[in-house]
Write a structure and sequence with these properties.
163 residues, mainly beta, Chitinase A, domain 3, Thrombin, subunit H, 2 domains, five-stranded antiparallel beta sheet, 8% helix
């Protein structure tokens, strides 16, 4: 079956940035599944996967502008340390959430203030995906209505290696 809208596609992939630094790898885990045409993955990936079949492998390069966009300077904010819960236990590089719902990476910490980058962690990054299509199947009506694949529920017998 070909990848097309309203199919559930299961893939394995590695994701690297343009400097060849590994960001994510599904090898050794269950494949990732998504509903094709529902906007659940980057548009450039959907476009590249359309028409492909189970077993096919491909590399897709996604420019930052088609991925998570450029780094936006207005999303790098300076905060008074009193606004950051647990600031004394935090170090630059830590991912934090604020009471007002903002989230980001602490990039600088001083005695009175800190800098928080609330851009998407992959903003400004061009991405290289190496994909292998594991399975393609028609989506169920329930999946189409939900806009996402439904999790498979497997019964566990309790035998070793089952769950």
């Amino acid at each position: 079956m070909q990848v097309q809208n309203q199919t559930v596609v299961s893939i394995h992939y590695t994701l690297k940035n343009s400097d060849d630094i590994l960001i994510q790898d599904t090898t050794g885990y269950s494949p990732e599944s998504y509903l094709h045409g529902a906007g659940n993955i980057l548009a450039k990936l959907e476009e590249a996967l359309t028409g492909k079949q189970s077993g096919e492998e491909l590399e897709v390069i996604v420019n930052y502008s088609e991925a998570f966009g450029p780094i936006e300077e207005h999303l790098i904010i300076e905060l008074n340390n009193q606004e950051i819960p647990g600031i004394n236990d935090l170090q630059p590089g830590d991912y934090i959430g604020l009471p007002d719902g903002r989230e980001g990476v602490l990039t600088e910490k001083n005695a009175d203030f800190s800098i928080l980058d609330t851009n998407h962690p992959l903003a400004g990054e061009s991405l290289v995906y190496n994909l292998k299509i594991v399975d393609v199947r028609p989506a169920t009506l329930e999946e189409i209505q939900a806009g996402t694949p439904m999790a498979e529920v497997k019964a566990c017998s309790g035998e070793e290696g089952c769950c």
